[in-house]
Write a structure and sequence with these properties.
The chain has about 325 residues and is an alpha/beta fold. It has a domain of about 220 residues: Rossmann fold (3-Layer(aba) Sandwich). About 45% of the residues lie in helices and about 15% in strands. The chain is built from 11 helices and 12 strands. It has a 7-stranded parallel sheet with strand order 3-2-1-4-5-6-10, with helices on both faces. The chain has a 3-stranded mixed sheet with strand order 7-9-11. A two-stranded parallel sheet has the order 8-12. β4, α3 and β5 form a beta-alpha-beta unit. α1 crosses α6 and α3 runs parallel beside α4. The protein is globular, with a radius of gyration of 19 Å.
Length: about 325
């Protein structure tokens, strides 16, 4: 049996993909930068030590692997050195695409983000073909993922069988770090959200995203993009659901945008030039809040057979996991 390589297998979505592959009886190799990672405890996987920035290590990791799930990414809303994120998200992806092409990989599933897609921002859902440009990207993370996605499209045109996935806002267990969305849930559970800045998100269970990866591997069209998302909800609706599943009270104070933007500018300036520690209020997060990030998953449903779990269940599972692991 040929092996399947997963990058980012110690991350939130990547670990869920690894679990789905193992459940399907697959032999899995996980690319890691450190040998002993707690996220892989209890998982029957082969570990390949390497780095996306080191193509020689990728060549070794790919040996004997016919399938690749490239889930790894530097996902932060603020970085002290943007070049590090570029090296991982763009150059690292290009390294892996090039090596996979050279070794004749049979299938390459690339995990992007809905943040690279066009979106009206006014509550009208975006789709895979909604017009968008690089200059629409807010923040270094989206800019790097947009560039990496372009590279994936180019390699698909050159003959590498690449399928591109655009997950929305995954929620659920094993948000180990946690992600910005997971941190919001933790802050809510700790009572650290006395107020909120209204926005809109598309919530999807992380397990549905992982299953969508395997569906895309099997049924996805080469060079095509597929949105893996579910329910479009305003932040106030999300907070109300969190209140219902956790027993905590939802914040009732809605903050105005412009004063918060000014505060975020000051906060990020302090972090960038003085403290060098992540800002409590990243400017990118506030700027992103201006748009309702709603999306339409109908293409994935129709072409891949993508199925979804209610957002409420996703939030329940996340709350339970964070509480059981002592985050709260």
């Amino acid at each position: 049996m040929t092996k399947t390589l997963v990058t980012g297998g110690t991350g939130f979505v990547g670990r869920a993909v690894v679990e789905e592959l193992l459940a399907a009886g697959r032999e899995v190799r996980v690319l890691v930068r450190q040998d002993d990672h707690p996220a892989l405890n209890g998982l029957d996987v082969e570990v390949a030590k390497g780095d996306l920035r080191d193509r020689d290590s990728l060549a070794q990791a790919l040996k004997g692997c016919a399938r690749v799930f490239h889930v790894a990414a530097d996902y932060r809303l603020w970085v002290p050195d943007p070049e590090v994120m570029y090296a991982i998200n763009v150059q690292g992806t290009q390294n892996l695409l090039a090596e996979a092409h050279a070794q004749g990989v049979e299938r390459f599933v690339y995990t992007s983000t809905v943040g690279t897609l066009g979106n009206p921002g006014d509550g009208v859902p975006g789709a895979e073909d909604t017009p968008v440009t690089y200059y629409d990207m807010v923040g270094q993370y989206k800019r790097t993922k947009f560039s990496a996605e372009l590279s994936a499209v180019q390699y698909a045109k050159q003959g590498l069988p690449v399928v591109i996935l655009n997950p929305s806002t995954p929620v659920g267990p094993w948000d180990y770090r946690p992600t910005p969305t997971g941190q919001m849930i933790v802050d809510f559970l700790k009572g650290r959200m006395p107020a909120y800045l209204e926005t809109g998100l598309n919530i999807v269970h992380v397990r549905d995203v992982a299953r969508g990866h395997l569906l895309a591997e099997e049924k996805g069209r080469v060079g095509e993009k597929y949105i893996l998302g579910n329910e479009n909800l305003s932040l106030s609706q999300i907070l109300q659901l969190l209140a219902e599943v956790s027993g905590r009270r939802a914040p009732r104070v809605r903050l105005p945008y412009w004063p918060i933007l000014a505060m975020a500018c000051v906060n990020e300036g302090w972090a960038t030039y003085i403290s060098r520690k992540p800002p409590r209020m990243p400017l990118t997060a506030v700027r992103m809040a201006r748009k309702y990030m709603y999306f339409d998953n109908s293409k994935a449903v129709k072409e891949l057979g993508f199925t979804v779990t209610p957002a409420r269940r996703a939030l329940e599972d996340a709350v339970e996991w964070f509480r059981e692991r002592g985050y709260v």
